[in-house]
Structure formats: C-alpha cells, structure tokens
Amino acid sequence: MSGPTKAYLLTETGDRIDCLFNPAQLEINKVNTWSGPAVAGKDAPKLVFKQGQSGTLAMTLMFDTTDTGQPVTTYTTKLLDLMKVDADLGESVDPNSKTGRPPWVRFHWGLMVSFKAVLKSLKVTFTYFSADGTPLRASATVTLEQFSDEGQWPLQNPTSGTPHPHTVHQVRVGETLDRIATHRYGDPTRWRVIAEANHILDPLRLEPGMLLLIPDQAEVARG
User: Fold this and answer.
1) Phi-psi region of 162 (alpha: psi -120 to 50; beta: other; left: phi over 0)
2) Model confidence, pTM
3) How far apart are CA 177 and CA 123, in angstroms?
4) Which residue among 80, 95, 166, 174 is buried most deeply as judged by most CB within 10 Å?
C-alpha cells in the first residue's frame, strides 16, 4: 500500500524541496484595492476597483531526521537558499547589469499546484537536538507571495482527493496528549502513539505553542 502523497516545492531553476511532513493547514490571503469619492449626504461612496494585490500562501512545515540522525539542516538550508539572490535570474534592460533576484517557486501537493510565488518570509526554529548538539527537528514558517498574474488563483484542484497525511498539531493552552488523541483519533488511549512519535518522556509537560507530529490514522489502526 502506497504512503500519503507528500507536498513539495519546485523552484524556478528545477530544484525540488520535499516536505517530510505535509502541512497541517494552508492559509491564503488576498487583498484588492478599491476607492470611492466622498459623496455629500451619503452613508458610503460607490467603490471603484483599482487593482489587485499579490496574494500570499502561508504554512508551517515540519522537518524531522531523528530516525536517521542526519542534521535536519540538510533540509532547512534548501529553504534558506530560496532567500538568496541568483545573479542569473535578474530582469534588466541593461544586458551588462548583474542585478539578480531569488527564484520563484510553486507549492505542489498531489493535484494541487499553487501560483508562482517568491519566498516573502521564512522563520526556521530548531526544536530538538542530539546529545552532541546536532539539530534533528525543525519547524519552518513560510509565507509565499504571488510573483505574477497568471490566472491561477489560489490553487488548482483544491478539492482533489489525497490520502490522509501525517500532520502537525500546535498545542493550545490546557491541552493534554489524551485530549489531542481523542480529537485526532477518537480514542484517548492513543496518546502513547503521539508521545512516541515526538519523543515525549513526560506526557504531562506540554508547552502551549509546541508542534507535535500526528501519525496518520491508518498507521495508528495497524498498530
């Protein structure tokens, strides 16, 4: 039986950055600019459309290499490189100009494909280390901003059916592992599955805001 469809980023230069775990949610934001003249004696003016603003696609990606022991920076560095200027990608009327820019990317997940987008912001947080200080787990908060108007907004085939992936859960104030297991699996006794997946030794010490890997239900059922 094949595993869940994994998301990935495909760059303008053909590089592929695989997501070890699919994002728990995607946040899409789009703003249009409207204006209207002041009209005496009216509650509101009639608005006239001016222009659309670039849309954004935000997500949090989780990277975990505790099973292999290799540095998780193998993956996070690829994301950080998307913020670097590539001298070969600049657009300029002067052929002698060396002005460049970072590459654009597309987010892919199964049949879903995003618009061309640049990496507007990136925040990488390392959350787990080996005894010798090697980073083994990290979360990356990513915001992609629409690169151009290409008639593709926001995602192609957003309702396409894809297998249930491993996901990520952000701990809220007052949550416990058994409550999370009840919400995710309908069975509070499955809290051990979550604890083992996240190397949690004390299930009573959950910090609000921390990210937990949630194994997919098919694996839990087989366990």
Assistant:
1) beta
2) 0.67
3) 26
4) 166
Which has the closest alpha carbon to 149: 38, 62, 54, 48?
54
Q: What is the pLDDT along the chain (223 residues), one digit of tens a residue?
A: 345 678 999 998 888 999 988 888 889 998 889 888 887 888 888 888 888 888 899 999 999 999 899 999 999 999 999 999 988 886 644 556 667 889 999 998 877 888 889 999 999 999 999 999 999 999 999 999 999 877 656 665 544 333 444 577 888 888 889 889 888 888 888 898 888 887 788 877 788 878 788 887 655 554 4
- Determine the 3-state secondary structure of 213 from DSSP: strand
Other C-beta atoms lying within 10 Å of the C-beta of residue 121: 12
Beta partners for residue 86, in sequence order? 101
User: Which CATH topology does 167-222 take?
Assistant: Membrane-bound Lytic Murein Transglycosylase D; Chain A (3.10.350)
